[in-house]
Design goal:
3-stranded mixed beta sheet; globular; alpha/beta; 15% strand; 10 strands; 5-stranded mixed beta sheet
């Protein structure tokens, strides 16, 4: 412990914690939300400190499968020949224009319409293959509008990440970096449109009281998270701290692995998670996701109708099929 009250005691991430910043960050904000942070020096920017909300987001185990399941042949440097088979159900050849195994039809679609085009880039949040896919698409597609699966209040925070700390923010901050001249739009809830649609669906289907309570509780938690992003952006933009709402998800591969290895890991990870969650989708989750997707489709339709050139949308891979169907005028889910 130094005389000024600071300490080099390691935090859980192995970085020394500066207690002077910890005192500044632990406070109760005026709107009644109690927020605490863990503060550590930023390894990617010595002039800033990285701050992590003490309550990380819930996530499933991300280190599955092990890279040991990828054959030695596939771990060789990518030779330029596509590895992942083209999705036979895909009607668009857009992804096949990329000489990169991480950009495959199962993760990347282009929806053309008389009003304009939308390029949908499906991602596994924080996965290195997804980050690389976003970079590859935005390197090829000249877009004036970048739509992100984020609530509008979160956009200033991810702009800060893109500007100050490329190591955080995952594919969302990378997308902002890769399209510096594009208009960045948050197309996800929570917002009043989502709330109105949720209430309408619950009332029209006469949902059980317990389901209504769970759906509204979920909406409340999403609203709290959006408020946390607003606070985090304010701190990040006005202090030497970079506030991160949660630790990035760590996978069994990283950006240093060959593209083929990243692609194989991501594909197997998605298949594993879907198998684990198969048949366990509750009606509460269905209400939430279907409403969010309907609102995102509406937003993308409006964006493409007023935009010259394609709109690029970065969304979670689980929403990809529903958004593609909706933008094509087909039924969702």
């Amino acid at each position: 412990m130094r005389h000024d009250g600071s300490s080099d005691e390691p935090c859980q991430t192995g970085c020394p914690v500066d207690r002077r910043f910890e005192f500044r960050a632990r406070r109760r904000f005026e709107f009644g939300m109690s927020v605490s942070f863990e503060v550590a020096p930023n390894p990617s920017n010595a002039s800033r400190h990285r701050v992590i909300f003490a309550s990380p987001r819930n996530s499933i185990e991300a280190d599955s499968p092990s890279l040991e399941t990828v054959s030695a042949e596939k771990q060789k440097d990518y030779s330029g020949t596509p590895v992942l088979p083209l999705d036979p159900m895909s009607s668009t050849p857009f992804a096949s224009t990329f000489d990169d195994p991480r950009v495959a039809p199962r993760f990347c679609r282009r929806v053309d319409h008389a009003d304009g085009s939308v390029v949908l880039v499906g991602v596994v949040h924080d996965h290195p293959a997804s980050v690389a896919r976003v970079e590859a698409v935005l390197d090829l597609v000249d877009t004036s509008v970048l739509a992100l699966e984020l609530p509008r209040p979160a956009i200033p925070l991810y702009r800060s990440y893109a500007r100050e700390d490329a190591a955080v923010g995952g594919e969302m901050s990378v997308a902002i970096q890769a399209a510096p001249d594009a208009e960045v739009v948050g197309i996800d809830g929570p917002n009043l449109t989502v709330l109105r649609r949720l209430v309408t669906a619950l009332v029209s289907e006469r949902a059980p009281t317990a389901t209504v309570r769970r759906v509204l509780s979920s909406f409340g938690m999403a609203t709290k998270t959006a408020a946390e992003c607003t606070v985090a952006a304010a701190i990040t933009n006005t202090t030497s701290m970079t506030v991160v709402p949660s630790e990035p998800i760590e996978y069994g591969c990283d950006r240093s692995d060959p593209p083929m290895v990243q692609a194989e890991h991501e594909r197997t990870h998605v298949a594993t998670v879907r198998a684990l969650l198969s048949g366990s989708r509750s009606r509460t989750i269905s209400y939430r996701d279907e409403t969010r997707e309907a609102c995102m489709i509406d937003r993308l339709e409006k964006l493409r109708s007023r935009t010259t050139g394609p709109v690029v949308a970065v969304i979670g891979v689980d929403h990809l099929d529903a958004l593609e169907a909706g933008l094509n005028g087909e039924s969702q889910r």
